[in-house]
Amino acid sequence: MALSTRPIAVAAGLLAGLALTACSGLTPSTNGDSGDQLVLRVQGKPSPTDKAALDQFDRLVAEFEKQNPGIKIEGTENKWDPLTFATKLAGKSIEDVIQAPLTEPPGLIARKQVQPITGPLKSWNHYQEFNPQVLKVLSDSAGDVYGVPLAPFAQGLVYNRKLFTQAGLNPDKPPTTWDEVRAAAKQIAEKTGKAGFVHESKGNTGGWQLTMGTYSRGGSMESEQGGKYVASFNSEPTKSALTWLQTLRWSDNAMGQNHLVDQDDVVKQFAAGQIGMFMGTPGTYRLAKMKFGLKNTADYGITSLPQSGGSATLAGADVFMVPASVSKEKAEAAVKWLLFAYIEPQFDPQVAAERAKELAANPEAAVGVPTLPLFSAAQQEKINAATKPYVNVELENFKPWLDGTAKLQLQPEPPVAAQKVYTILDTVVQSVLTKRDADIAALLAKAEADVNKVLAAEQK
């Protein structure tokens, strides 16, 4: 997803408050689900631990229903699960709007498990102003669009500014190369007794983060051969990333004691001041503060993804899509909801400012966490200016990420069966982190063979 990174959006949060204007061009519809109301079940409801976002979601639903009396929104906290999606879809127990990682649309579209929403989406007056690259991965070969993105992101290096200072490092000059990360991690571990750097390893996050390491070293995870994709990670960039991890873990002893962790585990430890650095996005600020109680938010720092032979970072997003089993009426209502709740605040400065102002009134909220833009640079400048008075995060601590990411190429996640690829690569990462004598060449050779079987099956 080659999104432009100039300028980078200063977002008002996952849900940025109430919009006072409805989306144009669409009319409410009913199907008798609940009297004269159409009941629309949607994923994307924040968890109770994110009270500010949950409160705003509830107000957002109330405002939407007030403007659209023919539609009732029922939010769920359900998350994307590739293991249960097909079963729920077949049993028609899936929500009318699903939220999935950007790795999934190509497969869902190819299997006809989701439906195009091009017609109702084009009814929005500003449809033509989307960055076309944003919708490309959500479209089929005929140009039909199957979803809308939420808060596109680019990976970087999150770091604890307090631990940097305690270790004698300059928090205003974070590492820019993996060699510098290694040196900083060793220094943090030696001076503070904390884990200098932690790499996620379970729940598909090990393969995901290995992909980041590969991209930053000039490599790729899949390449096209003869019109089909095959594994391409059994090469020097990925070997280099794993060798770097192996050295940091076993020679430098700079990665702490717990090596079977996912993102929540890492962010929780980071919020408690136990981790110096990890790969993540600016969005982990919200996790650290809202879910895991980061007290001194000024300790949070983030820079662009360090490089060693590459000039790239992994970009992605969550996307909202409509299952193929959903009726046309509900699909139209779904688009109306998605535009109202998620897209207009990223386009309309007035709506963005209103939602940012409301969210900022809650002391628990995080307003101003940067994301990547969905529209033109000029439009994003207007959004940034409108929301600036309500930003309540230490924006200067995001500056290394803002400046550095703008200079990197944004590479999408592997185009075929990414989550299954990550599952296989999790075992490689886990072996390297838990077995001193792990044979990287043998691990990658086996993973390559296993992934190629998966890719072949996916592309029949």
Automatic annotation (TrEMBL):
<feature type="signal peptide">
    <location>
        <begin position="1"/>
        <end position="22"/>
    </location>
</feature>
<keyword id="KW-0732">Signal</keyword>
<protein>
    <submittedName>
        <fullName>ABC-type glycerol-3-phosphate transport system substrate-binding protein</fullName>
    </submittedName>
</protein>
<dbReference type="InterPro" id="IPR050490">
    <property type="entry name" value="Bact_solute-bd_prot1"/>
</dbReference>
<dbReference type="Pfam" id="PF01547">
    <property type="entry name" value="SBP_bac_1"/>
</dbReference>
<dbReference type="InterPro" id="IPR006059">
    <property type="entry name" value="SBP"/>
</dbReference>
